[in-house]
Every structure is written in structure tokens, then in C-alpha cells.
Amino acid sequence: MTKRKTALLFLLTASLLYSVPTHAETATQAQGAVKPVTIYLDGHQFQPEVAPLNVDGTVLVPMRGVFEEEGAKLTWNNSSKTVTATKGNTTLTYRIGEHTASLNGQALSVDVPGQIANGYTLIPLRFVSEALGSSVKWDQTTKTVRITSTVNYETSILWGVNLRSLPDAGKGSSLEMLAAGAKVHVTREVNATWLEVQTHDNQTGYISAKPKYTDYSSPSLVDQQGDALIAYGKKYLGTPYVFGASPDQTNTFDCSSFVKRVFQDTLSIDLPRVSYDQAKVGKEVSMNELRKGDLLFFSARNLNIGHVAIYAGNNQILHTYSKELGVHVETFDGQWKKRFVTARRVF
């Protein structure tokens, strides 16, 4: 074995680093003498967006792909060319081109700095894997590198939910039923109603993001769910107002049947029928803390609480109380500020 190949094998085993064939090795592979290296991350083959760049034995890979594969949430400052990756309690900050990074506030040496090439931001795999707590095993027989990331199963299943092959209840298949009490790791927020997760037995799939099913929440998911609520409610703009309207139909609404329908259909949140009882659900929030999807309660019909609306953001409320207007959006001011009693947050 040549000294070059011996050095390469040492890097793979001792330094927890994978490599790709050099130009000389590629020529040898063409003759069928050397098998190409295969890389797996948590049991799945890792295929970067572009071919890795080998710089003196250190392999640089596309930034976004490797961070996301490692289960980290990524933010990128284009002006300073700085990447910040967060995984559990670990925060890694690195400015492309520098020889040091910050890991939870402590300096971390970067032997071969990251660089931007052909429109891609490339960073060293060794640096990322070690910083995020991954381990690597090299199989000499199969020329396979297996990278195992440290996974924090942070999310609890609250209600039995299907792990599905696709983020769509009408498509794909059910992989298994996750029982209440099970733990999963959320790898991605697909949209307002779906999460991509990893289970303890290393299965990946999709589960409902609706609050009923897990204790997972994040500012970005809350924003998406608030937007989804308002968008769904606006589908009924102009629907006639009828006091006491049955909640089992959508041809007419009163204020509380409208709110009940929107929350049930969008997030599977089952609210009580009348506004007085709806005001007992969730937690109270102040007027200066309001976010999309919060419930606003007002005095009406000589009752302390006789009306409910959904906060739609930008000082707007979505509700119904008028036979002339039906379901509509209006500004949260004037009479509504005077009659305001409380706000409740239910997700």
C-alpha cells in the first residue's frame, strides 16, 4: 500500500473523518483495483449536493446539507459570511475562511478553513461532526464510513399518532403507530400541520404537527399555525351570521361556532361551544403579547363575556356578529378596545 493510501486510512480511522478518492485513486478505481468510499449518516447514505472538495486530506462538504443531516438548525448571515448551527444545547458559530469557530462560547480550532466554491459554501466534515457530537466508524472491507449523530429525543407523543411515509394523510402509507409516551426527534417542520421525525429505532417519517399529538412547539411552527388558522377562517368571509347557529354546519355561524369550527378543522383543537366557556381554555395573555390565533373576548348582550374573535395580526380581528357583514375582518380598536375583557392562547 502506498504512503498516500496509508495516510488516508489513518485519517479515516483515527481522526473520525471520511474522505473521497484522490485523482490518483480515481484512476486506480477505473481499473477496478479500489472500491469507492460510501458514506452513511444514521443509516442513510449521505449524498452531498456537489462533490466534496479534498484539501490536503480534509474533506469539505456543502454547508447546508451536512448541518441539516446532522440534525442542526441553521442560520446564515450573508454579509458576514457567518453560519450559526443549533442542535439541542449546542450552538456552533463559524465565519467562512477563518481558522477558529465558537462552540458554546469556547474557541474551536479549524485546521482547514471553509470556503465558497462554485456558489456553494463548503465546510470541513470533521469539524462539523466532532463539534455536533457525532462518531464515525470505518469499515475497511466495504470501504464504508458510518457517521452516527447524537440524537436528542426531545418530543413526547401525547396522543397515538401514525408515523407516515409522506406528509399527507391521503397519500403514502402508515409505517407504524406511535403510542402516547413515546419519544421522537423532530428533524424538520414541514408546514403548519406536519413534522418530519426520527424514532428510537432509527425510522424516519412524518407525524401530525397539531398540538393534540405532541408537546413539540417552536416560534416558527406557531407562526405557521397562526397563518393557517387565519387563512382557513377567511375562506368563510361573508358567510351569514345567525345567533345560535349549529356548529355541525358551515352555511351560517355565530361568533363562537365560527371560532370552534376554525380551530377544529385547522388544528384539531376542540373548543367549547359558547364564548363564555371558550374563555376558560388555554392561558391568559396580555394585549401587548398578542399573536396570530389568540382568542379575544368581549362583553356583549349585557354579559361580561358574550363575544369572541380571533386575532389576525397587525391589529386586525377575524370574527362574525353582524347579519349585514357576516364573517369579516376589521381593526381592533374603538368599541372593541373598550369592550375587551381578556385574551386566551390555546396553542
From TrEMBL:
Pfam families in alphabetical order: Cu_amine_oxidN1, NLPC_P60, SH3_3
InterPro entries attached to this UniProt entry: Cu_amine_oxidase-like_N, Mao_N_sf, NLP_P60_dom, Papain-like_cys_pep_sf, Peptidase_C40, SH3-like_bac-type
Keywords: Hydrolase, Protease, Signal, Thiol protease
Signal peptide: 1-24
Domain NlpC/P60: 223-347
Keyword presence, Signal: yes
Presence of keyword Hydrolase: yes
SH3b domain residues: 149-216
Family assignment from sequence similarity: Belongs to the peptidase C40 family.
Name the UniProt record assigns to this protein: Stalk domain-containing protein
Organism in which the protein naturally occurs: Paenibacillus dokdonensis
